[in-house]
């Protein structure tokens, strides 16, 4: 049997990730097994193991995809504009719209928010990865923007960037989650824009 080409291997890997996410959402992360994933794909369990050594590795790969998507979007945005809190906030609003309108991204968002027991020792590696990957995620983007604003004199030097980032992400996570769940009936983009504007007003000089 000929060896799979790199392109074929990547396609298989993407299929595994997509179906694993679907099962994690449907059955729960804890209750999904490699046998379930293999059966869904009509593959052997060994074939799945060839690409991913564990469920944690699958979850880590899904996390990497999400972080890469955000990092690429941020680079595109900041290449056109100066790094400021309003610029990052505007991108976060657009990114939120992309999450709620794309089922796979929405499913992954909800999995990360409510479908995992982060205290589980089996997820320690993924949690560590998540903390490390914040350097290219929205939390760090807000910190970098506020620090740039402080240096440029747009924001008071007494402002703590990590506090602004925490408040920003709490708003972002909460509103997106409620929108996906169907409990948030107002215009999400408009609400996020106003919330971030209020935060910006509270910290700018």
Describe this entry's structure for a reader.
The protein is mainly alpha-helical and 205 residues long. The protein has helices at 6-27, 34-41, 45-51, 55-78, 85-101, 103-114, 124-133, 138-151, 161-181, 188-203. The longest helix is centred in the first third of the chain and has 24 residues, at 55-78. The radius of gyration is 19 Å and the shape is elongated. The mean pLDDT is 88.
Brief write-up:
It is built from 10 helices and no strands. The chain is mainly α and 205 residues long.
Taken as a percent bin, the fraction of beta residues is: under 5%
In one word, what is the shape?
elongated
Count every helix, treating DSSP H or I runs of 4 or more residues as helices: 10
Helix proportion of residues, in percent?
over 70%
Got a strand count?
A: 0
Topology:
Layout: H1 6-27, H2 34-41, H3 45-51, H4 55-78, H5 85-101, H6 103-114, H7 124-133, H8 138-151, H9 161-181, H10 188-203
Name the descriptors.
205 residues; 0% strand; 74% helix; mainly alpha; elongated
């Amino acid at each position: 049997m000929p060896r799979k080409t790199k392109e074929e291997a990547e396609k298989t890997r993407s299929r595994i990730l997509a179906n694993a996410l679907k099962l994690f959402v449907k059955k729960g992360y804890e209750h999904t097994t490699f046998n379930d994933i293999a059966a869904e794909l009509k593959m052997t369990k060994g074939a799945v193991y060839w690409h991913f050594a564990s469920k944690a590795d699958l979850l880590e790969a899904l996390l990497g995809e999400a972080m890469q998507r955000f990092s690429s979007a941020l680079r595109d945005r900041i290449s056109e504009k100066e790094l400021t809190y309003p610029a990052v906030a505007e991108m976060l609003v657009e990114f939120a719209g992309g999450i709620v309108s794309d089922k796979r991204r929405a499913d992954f968002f909800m999995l990360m928010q409510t479908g995992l027991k982060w205290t589980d020792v089996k997820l320690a590696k993924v949690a560590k990865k998540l903390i490390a990957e914040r350097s290219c995620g929205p939390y760090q983007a807000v910190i970098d923007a506020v620090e740039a604003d402080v240096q440029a004199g747009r924001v008071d030097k007494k402002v703590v960037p990590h506090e602004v980032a925490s408040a920003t992400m709490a708003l972002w996570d909460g509103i997106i989650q409620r929108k996906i769940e169907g409990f948030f009936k107002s215009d999400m983009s408009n609400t996020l824009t106003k919330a971030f504007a209020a935060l910006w007003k509270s910290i700018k000089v």
